[in-house]
Amino acid sequence: SKCLKGDNFSSGELLRFGNIELSPSSGILNYGQGLFEGLKAYRKQDGSILLFRPEENALRMRTGAERMCMPAPTVEQFVEAVKRTVLANKRWVPPTGKGSLYIRPLLMGSGAVLGLAPAPEYTFLIFVSPVGNYFKEGLAPIHLIIENEFHRATPGGTGGVKTVGNYAAVLKAQSAAKAKGYSDVLYLDCVHKRYLEEVSSCNVFVVKNSVISTPAIRGTILPGITRKSIINVAISQGFEVEERLISVEELLDADEVFCTGTAVVVSPVGSITYLGKRVSYGDRKVGVVSQQLYTALTKLQMGLSEDKLGWTVELK
Ligand code: PMP
Fold first, then answer.
1. Which sequence positions carry the modification called N6-(pyridoxal phosphate)lysine (predicted)?
2. What is the ipTM of this complex?
3. What are the pLDDT digits (tens) for 116-157?
């Protein structure tokens, strides 16, 4: 069996949200041959709608499709489909400052396979839902626990792409953490069990003496679009930013820790628990660097500051 290549996706139709039909022997159900993306549409004060860097999601899906042996929509097809879906659901985009419309594109092996192999057919679909804050804390600090037993990704695995199985792998640790009152889990690398990787659904940053560091992308971490954007914003605001290996010990004397992602935007971390010991940051207050970057990014995303880099796409 070969990987299917190409971008032979039809223009698609708009359907009311509901169940879809799928072969019991589809590639997605049996072998997890699926990828997803996540992006948000924000309402501007003039009523128009903004997407944030949707072509980055399209490119990440294409990179993931290569890893998962799937064909993928072109960047143009992806962005057009997102625009069409959002415009059809315009009334569900909340007012400025009241949340956003979360957009979930999915690419899956929908064709039937019996023995392990890439599926013979693929389906690309998008669904949307209005959302508020990801963590119940909002911009208040979140509390993480470092996982010592389970890992999210292994070198050579699929951690660097947004495939569905990566999320199945974190459900157990994440549920256990939430049951104990933590907001989420911070994962370490599985080789040394020492270097920070990322949280279940966001990237992590550490601030020390105004230098901002984040784990370098090494195939086991998802290259977050918010991560990339925050690095850019921080540099343009005069911060020094390092992408490197960050050991768990560095958390002990960090000034601030924060997470980034489409869903979590910029979420300050109030405490991290590791091997039963808890390190706290900011005395229950949001750190100055986290706050500054949060404000800069959300203003851009909501069209409240000038988009000098052309990161937003306006829909009428
Ligand atoms: N890491 C993981 C594992 C994620 O699921 C996400 C959310 N897509 C991120 C990081 C952040 O990526 P982005 O900023 O593109 O949403």
1. 162
2. 0.99
3. 999 999 999 999 999 987 766 668 899 999 999 999 999 999
